[in-house]
Each structure stands twice: as structure tokens, then as C-alpha cells.
Amino acid sequence: MKGVSFTVEELEQRSGVQARTLRHWIREKLLPKPIGRGRGARYDERHVVRAVVARQMRSTKLSLPAIRTRLSSLSESELLALAQGEARARGASVDGVPAPPPAPSYPSTAWELVSLMDGLVLMVSTTKGPLVRRVADEIYRYYGTPT
């Protein structure tokens, strides 16, 4: 996402950190300074990633100086990996795309729905082999109405 920039409100939304806290963290050098000043200040993915990781570290009761030291010792790829791990745990992602839902813990089966006519549907298991599909095809040819 090179070249993409955000307002402080967008950074707040993407990172889950209040704007007031973000500004404080910039003063404390946990985050880099914004591009520009005042209302024209813009933030990029580096700010999002660092804010997410700093929030994660802060939730473990680390002090701001300890977080600053830790952030400065990590590479950009390490920071991104930490941010993505935290985002997955929340069911989101750093780039704003929701994480896929977890696999169901209950037994499930895939089915095809074959509409025979308005109000009548045939359910065909996709795992039972070609014979079941052939029978379903015969039923459809005999009872199905073209839509």
C-alpha cells in the first residue's frame, strides 16, 4: 500500500487507538512524525502498524519507554508480523480486510440445491459420488422446469 495516506481520524479507525493517544505516542517517539503538520498531517501504513503493535504492548502493561525501546529494536517486517498476528486474534487485519471466519467445530456437509420448480428444491450431497448426482440429474430432467 505504498503512497496511501490517512488522516488522524482514519489512523484512529484503522489502529483502534484514540487520536489523542496517537498524538501522545508521536510526542513520546513511539510513532514517527506525520507527513505534514496541523490539519494537513497525513499518516501511512508505518503509523498503522506501529500503533497496532504499541497498543498490543501497552495492553500487557509495558511502559512507554519500554515500548519505544522494543519498537526501535524491531525491523519493519517483524513489526508487520506482530501487527498481523494481533489483527488475526481480533478477527481483522492491518490492511482493513476482515480475516476469514474460523472453520466450524461442528460436523458439516456440502450440498447442492437443485430447484425443480418454484417452491420445490432437491438437496444433493456433493460427497456421495456420481451415482447420487446421476439420480439427481434424472429427477431434474423429469420434474424440473426450465427457469
Features of the shown structure:
147 residues, two-stranded antiparallel sheet, mainly alpha, 2 domains
Can you walk me through this structure?
This protein is mainly alpha-helical. It has two domains: 8-90, Multidrug-efflux Transporter Regulator, Chain: A, Domain 2 (Orthogonal Bundle); 111-143. The protein is built from six helices and two strands. Helix 3 crosses helix 4 (64-73) and helix 3 crosses helix 5.
Q: Largest sheet, order of strands side by side?
A: 1-2
Instruction: Indicate the overall shape.
Output: elongated
CATH topology of the largest domain, by name, is Multidrug-efflux Transporter Regulator, Chain: A, Domain 2
CATH architectural group of the largest domain: Orthogonal Bundle
Structural class: mainly alpha
**Can you count the helices?**
6
Number of domains: 2
Unreliable spans: none
Cα-based radius of gyration, to the nearest Å: 26 Å
Number of strands: 2
- What is the ordering of alpha helices and beta strands? HHHHHEEH
Cα(first) to Cα(last) distance is 45 Å
Q: Sheet with the most strands?
A: 2 strands, antiparallel
Give the amount of beta strand, in percent. Answer: 5-15%
Q: Mean pLDDT score, rounded? A: 84
What is the CATH first-level class name of the largest domain? Mainly Alpha
Assign a percent range to the helix content.
40-55%
